[in-house]
Amino acid sequence: MGTEIAVTDPRRERILILDAGTLAENRSLAVTGTPFNIVAVGGSGINH
Predict the structure, then answer these.
(1) In the predicted model, is pLDDT for residue 37 greater than 70?
(2) Which domain covers residue 16, as residue numbers?
């Protein structure tokens, strides 16, 4: 499992990066416009 969660904040034109365990804000990324969707691709390399 990852340690961070990305959440869009369209009203403030930013993406929040939260700690997955506590949901505390780690950092934020300023973006232009109103972000509504996030597409994420990743892999751990662990076989299921």
Answers:
(1) yes
(2) 1-40
